[in-house]
Specification:
Helix content is about 45%, strand content about 10%. It has about 300 residues and is α/β, with parallel strands linked by helices. It folds into 2 domains: about 160 residues, Orthogonal Bundle (serine acetyltransferase, domain 1); about 110 residues, 3 Solenoid (UDP N-Acetylglucosamine Acyltransferase, domain 1). It has a 5-stranded parallel sheet. A 5-stranded parallel sheet has the order 3-6-9-12-14. The longest helix is centred in the N-terminal third of the chain and has 27 residues. The termini are far apart. About 30% of the residues are buried.
Length: about 300
């Protein structure tokens, strides 16, 4: 393509933009070839969704004789895409290290193989999540409806894959996955959070689960729930090197209703508790509590 002829004010704007890239702005990164491609990461996740929920995503009939080739259609390209994007992420993350200490393409391949070997277990976990939604929502007419239409299922699927990658020390890719689901559903689950089995998010819009949150088994969250950190002065670099628990713990069988906010790394909600709608909670409560109003540090 030939550059268009001079267009007066637009040339001046272009000159100003070019000049801004020659300053020390932190967003000036031009090493785009070294960074992961967000669309490719999401495409790889799409292949993983097929592998996990094949019967829901395929556009053709699949039976016992065609199951293996149908899965292979997504396993091979999904593995290739994820390997390439993880390699881009680690190559960028390791760019300041001596050559001998940088992780290799073979490291990325092995890591993706480890992730894919976990898919049968991830499918079992997600089956439990789907069944929890079916069990707890009387409005659900079928398991199929839950998988096809519930935003919590997409958010939890992305989270469980991202959490596995986070545990394997993959930079950047886990957040791309969970933020993709966040954009689609309004549910923000940090890949570093620890979330137990049979997790159910009802409706979901506005749910926020922070990075150091611990959630037990059989927990239910409704829309607008925040499991967040107290506002404190921290050194971000120090926190990355020596992370502290900033977000709450919800033990088994806790229910948190719409609009509730639970803050702080030392805040523990005991098992079998119910936190009512719009509650503001910043201190621990014992098992089997029923909290229906604001509970701050040092108050009743």
């Amino acid at each position: 393509m030939h550059e268009q002829a001079s267009s007066g004010p637009l040339d001046e704007i272009l000159d100003a933009l070019v000049d801004s890239y020659h300053t020390e702005l932190s967003i000036n990164n031009l090493e785009t070839s070294a960074l992961p491609n967000r669309r490719a990461v999401i495409e790889a996740f799409g292949h993983l969704q097929h592998l996990i929920f094949l019967g829901y995503f395929t556009t053709r009939d699949v039976g016992p004789s065609s199951l293996r080739p149908a899965l292979r259609e997504h396993l091979v390209p999904g593995a290739a895409l994820m390997t390439e994007q993880i390699h881009r992420a680690i190559r960028y993350a390791d760019r300041a290290l001596p050559l001998g200490e940088r992780r290799t393409l073979d490291w990325s391949r092995e890591l993706v193989e480890r992730l894919l070997l976990r898919l049968p277990e991830l499918r079992r976990r997600l089956d439990e999540d789907v069944r929890a939604a079916w069990a707890h929502d009387p409005a659900a007419e079928s398991l199929e409806e839950v998988v096809f239409s519930y935003p919590g299922v997409l958010a939890i699927t992305a989270y469980r894959v991202a959490h596995a990658l986070h545990g394997l020390r993959v930079p950047m890719i886990p957040r791309i996955l969970t933020e993709h689901a966040h954009g689609c559903t309004g549910i923000d689950l940090h890949p570093g959070a620890e979330i137990g089995r049979r997790f159910f998010i009802d409706h979901g819009t506005g749910v926020v689960v922070g990075a150091t949150t611990h959630i037990g088994d059989d927990v239910k969250l409704y829309q607008g729930v925040t499991l967040g950190a107290m506002s404190v002065k921290v050194d971000p670099e120090e926190d990355r090197l020596h992370p502290v628990k900033r977000h709450p713990t919800l033990q088994d069988r806790v229910t948190v209703y719409a609009g509730a906010t639970i803050l702080g790394g030392q805040t523990v909600v005991g098992h079998d508790s119910v936190i009512g709608g719009n509650v503001w909670l910043t201190r621990s409560v014992p098992p089997r509590s029923r909290i229906l109003s604001r509970v701050d540090q040092g108050t009743g």
